[in-house]
Design a protein that fits this description.
Blueprint: H1 7-19, E1 23-27, H2 34-43, E2 50-55, H3 64-72, H4 86-94, E3 99-104, H5 114-122, E4 126-132, E5 142-144, H6 157-161, H7 164-176, H8 184-196, H9 201-208, H10 216-225, H11 243-253, H12 257-266, E6 273-274, H13 275-282, H14 286-298, E7 303-304, E8 313-315, H15 318-327, H16 333-353, H17 359-366, H18 368-381, H19 387-396, H20 401-415, H21 424-439, H22 448-460, H23 468-485, H24 488-504, H25 508-525, H26 528-545, H27 548-559, H28 575-584, H29 588-604, H30 608-625, H31 628-644, H32 648-657, H33 662-667, H34 671-688, H35 690-701, H36 705-719, H37 738-747, H38 753-760, H39 764-778, H40 783-792
Parallel strand pairs: 1-4, 1-5, 2-3, 3-4
Antiparallel strand pairs: 6-8, 7-8
Length: 803
């Protein structure tokens, strides 16, 4: 949505970031728009900097850097008793990178600490923007957000329209109800609504969301009479209007008992939750939950998130969760949630072990915040008893920010020696997944020997005959470990052993995945003909069993062989389509490999500026995770891009930055890439002179990996061609399918999900999927805004709802 009424504050914030202090505060009372201002910063970053947005609303008693580590997943694991402080972990990842840390809901006590000073002193190009409830910085370093200006009583029609609070109300009301119009006779009521809620943007949006149900005059009367037992949202002074509390209470008061119960149950989720989770904990029939969610969304009590694989996903504002928690609507919500999480994780763990991707796997990934929170709770009460939960989480959350927390808990389990008392299978999983967590850490490449040792301890505990699925999973972990740390020989052996195990035990999906891994390993050795043969066979098998992971892997291999290496009649999926899918599912590991493949393809076809675009994306994403091995691979690609574009001095400087890891990295790359790098080095010596190149390399060798990555990202972005991001390009009315247009037309007439499902002879769940697709394509946040869109574009039918 547009950021209305805050243009001056936005401009001031950008000015401070460019020229002002390193630590900048955004202060103001609840609902004043601090989060919206931070979101606008992330949507349109300052030139030359990346914005890392971190919400610390449930960071608990942890310090600032510990909260950042947990939310971003940038931790450096500390094996064998080593002690990394949270601030050191953040510093190691950021280094000299131009980053703006946009921190929302920051507890005030976490700022005025030596840790904050150390973070800023150690990262010279870092700016930190914090949103807090009260001013904690000097006036020159703080943007104090005030409520939006409201019209005084008796203001003229023109004067009222000029007020930002009224403009915000009109914009949000029109989005919710296309027929809403502000006229001379209604402007006084709109102005009074804005005054009653004290000009608070969130309260104005809550009020505007109800305009379909109430006229402005009636809404003003309700707000003036609203009372609530809770004082948590009041401004703290009797002389100030308690606008946000009244707006929430008035909206809450419109709900029926079953809708209040549903809202209370949903408040137990600490992060995003899928539609199926709402059904599971809601305690109501499927259709009633679907309609209840639509109403709660339209009233702004919950927010729709980006859908994962077509599934509807929702979240709740922290302030709403606080309101519900203190009202005691449903004390049993936490227990219901826990039972549901246990079922989801159990089903998802079984699916992953069988190499299948079910809805439970998608739901587990969406619920990752809640799964990890439950893991922390279980670990605190019984460390050994939490092992099965933690290893199941590790299998679901590979590469996510939350996986870092799981890895640290497994590390602590090993350090306390409680792992020794676990049942054999649980012991094996702890060793296996702890090795994988180490492999994904920034120091993973340097710990290759420890990673192999841990994996071996786990693998030795597995009875292949009685536990074939666990044995297959262990080989998959070995391949990932080897690829991530540059230990290609381990990856090759594990892939081939895994393929034999899968075939002998009749697990076709596992066989397809290992065939892909084998093809990738052969490709890396330079045997293109064999790699193509293996990858084509793997692709056929993957398509037959419908395994997306194997399809992606085989496609990458086949798309990155030299031109003419793949038969012309081979039908291959588009890498950009697969990238869009990986992003929609928040699969950062698959996304990284696809970005690398796109970089190599553009380079091989002579499009260096397009390659620079994809390489910059991969390098920036890897830097935020601290994935050292993948960073060095991207630096190799950047060297080739720089040489292709004629910037040999910069290519030589990157070669210097690669010097420490060069041999290890090249062992894991295709011989053709190694040959290209050698030619680049020789070309630089020839054209620039060996002495000059040696000086450039020496300068690059002084850079840390994070500093080198930051410098290269800036260079790549300056030289990159614009490339459309792989998202659904069809937006608006024309993008809707005939069925979606049919659903929208009756949805806009006020039909419930159950009525639509009965009329179209589809299930309520299918109706929800169509609704989610409609909202995404039309860029609206829920049923009310979709209805407004349909009325504006003449897409409403005249049928009456079925009886």
């Amino acid at each position: 949505m547009k950021l209305l009424g805050r243009q001056d504050e936005r401009a001031h914030l950008m000015e401070l970031i460019r020229e002002g202090p390193r630590l900048i505060g955004i202060s103001g009372r609840a609902g004043v728009g601090k989060s919206a201002l931070l979101a606008s910063l992330a949507d349109a970053p300052p030139e030359g900097a990346d914005v890392w947005k971190v919400d610390l609303h449930e960071a608990g008693e942890s310090g600032l850097c510990e909260g950042i580590v947990r939310r971003l997943g940038v931790a450096v694991l500390a094996p064998s008793g080593a002690d990394y402080r949270p601030v050191e972990r953040v510093v190691r990842v950021i280094g000299g990178t131009p980053v703006v840390l946009a921190l929302d809901h920051v507890p005030e006590r976490t700022l005025d600490t030596p840790e904050t000073d150390e973070l800023l002193d150690s990262c010279p190009n870092l700016r930190v923007v914090v949103a807090t409830s009260t001013r904690v910085l000097d006036a020159t370093e703080n943007i104090a957000l005030q409520p939006l200006h409201v019209p005084p009583p008796g203001a003229s029609f023109e004067e009222a329209l000029a007020c930002p609070s009224v403009a915000l109300f009109i914009d949000r009301a029109t989005s919710a109800y296309a027929r809403f119009r502000v006229e001379e006779k209604t402007i006084d009521a709109v102005a009074e609504i804005c005054r009653l809620v004290g000009g608070l943007p969130l309260a104005i949006e809550l009020a505007a969301a109800r305009i379909r149900m109430l006229s402005p005059e009636r809404l003003a009367v309700e707000l003036s009479d609203a009372t609530a037992a809770l004082d948590l949202l009041s401004p703290g002074s009797h002389t100030q209007r308690m606008g946000l509390r009244q707006a929430i209470a008035a909206t809450f008061g419109t709900l029926r008992d079953h809708e209040r119960l549903l809202l209370g149950r949903l408040s137990c989720f600490s992060g995003p939750f899928p539609f199926e989770a709402a059904v599971a904990v809601g305690g109501q029939p499927y259709g009633d939950v679907a309609d209840g969610l639509e109403k709660l969304t339209d009233l702004r009590l919950i927010d729709p998130d980006e859908p994962a694989s077509g599934e509807a996903v929702y979240s709740m504002l922290p302030i709403m969760r606080r309101f519900i928690a203190e009202s005691g609507i449903d004390a049993d919500a936490a227990a219901v949630r826990r039972t549901y999480l246990e079922g989801v994780l159990r089903d998802a763990d079984l699916a992953v072990s069988r190499a299948t991707r079910t809805s439970a796997v998608i739901h587990a990934h969406t619920l990752r915040r809640d799964l990890v929170d439950e893991g922390l709770r279980r670990f605190a009460s019984d460390a050994g008893g939490s092992a099965a939960w933690l290893t199941a989480c590790a299998a679901q959350l590979v590469g996510s920010a939350e996986s870092v927390i799981v890895g640290e808990l497994l590390e602590r389990l090993i350090e306390t020696r409680e792992v020794d008392a676990l049942p054999r299978a649980d012991r094996a999983r702890v060793w296996l997944w702890s090795s994988n967590a180490l492999a994904f850490s920034p120091d993973g490449a340097a710990m290759a020997e420890l990673i192999r040792e841990r994996w071996g301890r786990g693998a030795d505990l597995i009875d292949v005959t009685s536990e074939p699925l666990l044995a297959l999973q262990s080989r998959s972990i070995a391949v990932t470990n080897g690829v991530t740390t540059g230990d290609l020989s381990t990856a090759v052996l594990a892939a081939r052993e895994g393929a034999r195990l899968a075939l002998s035990n009749a697990f076709p999906t596992w066989a397809a995945r290992f065939e892909v891994l084998d093809a990738a390993a052969v490709h890396a050795t330079g045997d293109v003909t064999a790699a193509v043969r293996l990858a084509l066979a793997a692709l056929r098998h993957a398509e037959r069993v419908g395994d997306l992971e194997a399809i992606v892997g085989a496609t990458i291999v086949l798309r990155t062989v030299p031109l003419g290496g793949v038969p012309g009649n081979a039908a291959l999926p588009s890498l950009t389509d697969l990238l869009a899918l990986a992003r929609s599912q928040e699969d950062v590991v698959r996304e990284s490999f696809l970005l690398g493949a796109l970089t190599r393809i553009e380079l091989s076809e002579g499009r260096a500026r397009e390659a620079a675009h994809w390489c910059a994306e991969r390098l920036a994403a890897g830097a935020a995770r601290g994935w050292s091995y993948l960073l060095t691979i991207s630096l190799v690609h950047a060297t080739l891009i720089a040489a292709t574009l004629g910037d040999l001095p910069f290519a030589a400087r990157i070669l210097g930055a690669l010097s420490a890891d060069r041999e290890r990295v090249l062992r894991a790359m295709a011989p053709a890439t190694t040959a290209q790098l050698e030619r680049t080095s020789a070309m630089a010596d020839s054209r620039l002179g060996a002495a000059h190149v040696a000086a450039l390399r020496a300068g690059g060798a002084l850079l840390t990996l994070s500093d080198a990555s930051a410098e290269v990202v800036r260079w790549l972005r300056r030289h990159a061609a614009h490339v459309d991001h792989p998202v659904d390009t069809a937006t608006g009315e024309a993008s809707l399918t005939p069925r979606e247009r049919e659903v929208l037309s009756v949805l806009a007439e006020g039909w419930t999900n159950q009525q639509i499902a009965a009329h179209l002879h589809i299930s309520v769940k299918t109706t929800m999927h169509h609704s989610v697709a409609i909202y995404r394509k039309l860029a609206v946040r829920g049923r009310a805004e979709a209805t407004a869109y349909a009325h504006r574009h003449g897409m409403v039918r005249s049928d009456s709802p079925p009886a």
